[in-house]
């Protein structure tokens, strides 16, 4: 019984860490990628990207707690982060 409780608590702690740290990282990467890729003047792109980042972060947090396991939460954040990183890298090359 104690082992099950400990595994549950570790799972919640892992999800919380993924939600706080990983959600922030994904949100920051999304803002950077959007600021590079959106059309328009620089100031408009940055403002739009920043406001969108305020939506991305809560969505990432909800994703972490909606998945069936902590591993899936981490994997989803990692995959999203890698994709956004690739967009930033490709946008910086142009």
Written overview of the protein:
It contains 3 helices and no strands. It is 90% helix and 0% strand. The protein has one domain (2-93). The protein has 94 residues and is mainly alpha-helical. The chain starts with a helix and ends with a helix. The chain is elongated, with a radius of gyration of 16 Å. The mean pLDDT is 94.
List the helices and strands and how they pair.
Blueprint: H1 2-37, H2 42-66, H3 70-93
Oligomeric state of the chains present here: single chain
Share in helix: over 70%
- What's the number of helices? 3
Give the DSSP E fraction (strand runs of 2 or more residues).
under 5%
Radius of gyration: 16 Å
Number of domains: 1
Distance between the termini: 57 Å
SSE order? HHH
What features would you highlight for this structure?
about 90 residues, about 0% strand
Short description:
The chain has 94 residues and is an all-alpha fold.
